[in-house]
Specification:
Structural class: alpha/beta
Order of helices and strands: EHHEHEHEHEHEEEHHHEEHEEH
Strand order of the largest sheet: 2-8-7-6-5-3-4
Number of helices: 11
Shape: globular
Bound molecules: pyridoxal-5'-phosphate
Number of domains: 2
CATH class of the largest domain: Alpha Beta
CATH architecture of the largest domain: 3-Layer(aba) Sandwich
Number of strands: 12
């Protein structure tokens, strides 16, 4: 790639921030392959009914596109609160909900409001590779502690890291990406209690992008919101909802925390079209949740199948599975790709991550893996 910052062909050198010089944009390869199991999307496209309702809602919104959208998207926030009540039994008011173009933007808002120069964001690796980017882009110092061998988080180690680094933001993915690990609420409470001791204050973000896929008995951190004003629980419509292309993410938190995010958002950041699409899809959440049940069963069956073939598999509360260990994971990844199956080369050395697809896609993955890994 041409390094634009030092290119001498132009008259002017670009004043790119030194910490960005030479960096490539983040993102998994977008390859044209028959079986796409690399970015944890829902494999099922919206049904004809959902498509028709989205189209009608967008047509309605289009009639008003000469006007700016509702800056505070009140109707969408009410719908999201109603959805969270149905999904996890936690009652929230619309003033406790925030939304943006994907939970990636929600988390950027969090870092813009609570991070910044001279401040630190803390997480525990291996975890979502976008977190350090939010920190970098907001000039927040980034510190990554470690998860245990089994990808759980030791509450004592977490407390010690918070005491040592005094972060203003802690990011916890649960279920974690790329490992699938959900945190027990006792661990989240331990982190919240330690965060409450940070002199300047500390916001704890529990990223539940895969929350809907959690196994029976695994609680949501939404249950802790009433007791902890410095907790934010982030969710997305990209995964369980099968709406990754619409770019809608959201969070639940105390009203004062949401108010801080309203300060840093760009005016009218959530377009009228996006709001209409999200609301039309939310009206079908019961149908979509039934599909999530099928994906969870498919996930559990895949874990059993992989283990029966002698592979190591991390327990998963998400719609993907981390499996290994391979001496040459690159070769396995490439072998699968050569057979038309794209998975993700991510996580600690030796591991690969596969998203849960349709039964046909899962079968194609299994057939390819048997060949490639000689199972
Ligand atoms: C996929 C994912 C998200 C969701 O990103 P969107 O911007 O909502 O599409 C957030 N967090 C984690 C850990 C993810 O894997």
């Amino acid at each position: 790639m041409t390094d634009l910052s030092t290119s001498t062909s132009g008259a002017q050198r670009l004043p790119i921030r030194p910490e960005l010089a030479g960096l490539e944009p983040y993102g998994a390869p977008q390859l044209d392959v028959p079986v796409l199991l690399n970015v944890n999307e829902n494999p099922y496209a919206p049904s004809d009914e959902v498509v028709a309702d989205i189209a009608a809602a967008v047509a309605h919104a289009a009639r008003g596109l000469n006007r700016y959208p509702d800056r505070d998207f009140e109707a969408l926030r009410s719908d999201l609160a109603a959805y969270l009540l149905a999904e996890s039994g936690v009652a929230l008011g619309p003033e406790q909900i925030w939304a943006a173009n994907g939970s990636n933007e929600v988390m950027l808002h969090l870092l813009q409001a609570f991070g910044g120069p001279g401040r630190t964001a803390l997480s525990f690796a291996p975890t979502y590779s976008m977190y350090p980017e939010y920190a970098r882009d907001t000039s927040t110092e980034w510190v990554a502690g470690r998860r245990a061998e089994d990808f759980s988080l030791d509450p004592r180690a977490a407390r010690a890291a918070i005491a040592e680094h005094a972060p203003s933001v802690v990011l916890l993915a649960s279920p974690n990406n790329p490992t699938g690990t959900a945190l027990p609420l006792d661990t989240v409470r331990a982190v919240l209690d330690a965060a409450a001791q940070v002199p300047g204050g500390c916001v704890v973000v529990v990223d539940e992008a895969y929350g809907e896929f959690r196994r029976t008995g695994t609680p949501s951190a939404l249950e802790l919101l009433a007791a902890y004003p410095h907790l934010a629980v982030s969710r997305t419509m990209s995964k369980a909802f099968g709406l990754a292309g619409a770019r809608v993410g959201y969070l639940a938190a105390a009203p004062a925390l949401v108010d801080a995010l309203r300060v840093v958002r760009l005016p009218y950041h959530l377009s009228a079209v996006t709001q209409a699409v999200a609301r039309a899809a939310l009206a079908h959440s019961a149908e979509l949740m039934a599909q999530v049940g099928a994906l969870r069963e498919e996930r559990d069956a895949l874990v059993v199948w992989l283990r029966a073939r002698g592979l190591q598999v991390a327990d998963s509360d998400a719609n993907f599975v981390l499996f290994g260990l391979f001496d040459d994971r690159r070769a396995v990844w490439q072998g699968l790709l050569d057979r038309g199956v794209l998975v993700r080369e991510v996580g600690p050395p030796g591991w690969l991550r596969v998203s849960v697809g349709t039964p046909d896609e899962t079968q194609a993955f299994k057939d390819a893996l048997v060949e490639v890994a000689g199972l």
